[in-house]
Amino acid sequence: MEAAAAKLIGAGIAMIGAMGAGLGVGMAAFGGVQGIARNPDAAGAIQTNMILGIVFTEAIAIYCLVVAMLILFVF
């Protein structure tokens, strides 16, 4: 296997983590919307915590992207 092909495969494998982050964002939004629908008075607190969870989940996707870029362009 050539080095260029190994880099592409490695970058693809590194981006598998982004799928988990996508699922996590979807589940956080689902839970937040469901919580707001059940208790509209707590919408502010639920929305704040939901956005915080989405931000932390998106950070995982960004880390995966950085690792993939490092594999492609540095190694």
Describe this structure in words.
- With 75 residues, the chain is an all-alpha fold.
- It is built from three helices and no strands.
- It has helices at residues 3-14, 16-38, 43-73.
- The mean pLDDT is 92.
User: Radius of gyration, rounded?
Assistant: 17 Å
Termini distance? Answer: 16 Å
**How large is the count of helical segments?**
3
Overall form: rod-shaped
User: What is the H/E order?
Assistant: HHH
Descriptive tags:
3 helices, mainly alpha, 75 residues
Summarize the structure.
By secondary structure, this protein is mainly alpha-helical. The protein has three helices and no strands.
What's the structural blueprint in terms of helices and strands?
Blueprint: H1 3-14, H2 16-38, H3 43-73
Helix pairs in contact: 1-3, 2-3
